[in-house]
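Q: What would this chain look like folded?
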Amino acid sequence: MQLYIGLGNPGAKYANNRHNIGFMAMDAIHRAHGFSPWRSKFQAFAADGTVDTDAGPKKALLLKPQTFMNDSGQAARQALDYYKLDPEAVTVFYVEIDLAPGKFRLKSGGGAAGHNGIRSLISHLGPDFRRARMGVGHPGDKRLVHHYVLSDFYKAEEAWVSDLCGAAARALPLLAAGDVDAFQTRVTFLAPAPKPESEDADKD
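A: My prediction, written as structure tokens:
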């Protein structure tokens, strides 16, 4: 079984925040692959199902921790213990301010890089899980980061956010089959990051 975790904060107040792009990715995967209805379990909303791959169906669990971002590791630990999984079975989808808007990068292991949700996961699971980093860009001043990630996506950003989450869902069979490099390549192909406005202006 694979465990896919989206990071975010619970409640309608935060639903469209940049910080919640991990939840948005889980919702896209849930819709695309016909997972069970969301239910409260492991201090999270959880849904189970299968992902059809070329190697056959693969069992998976989706998790949206409801403990708030900074305590996300609690829910993940409970789910791993219940299913007797190793951290290598986990892929975490989350916001990354150090990537340009719409950029997508997948890696395994490493540190928290200042991300409190990842820090919580490392404290509960160790570092050996996959990180699906979903770029939203940086506000330009570290003093603005907190407000930036806890503010809603602009209307003009909604198209690429939807495309990126949808691409992760469409490419998921590659990840479920264990082909992590192909998964990243496919997501990037299906949802190329939008060009910066400055590049568009240079062409005018």
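The helical segments are 21-33, 72-83, 116-125, 145-149, 158-176, 180-190, 197-203.
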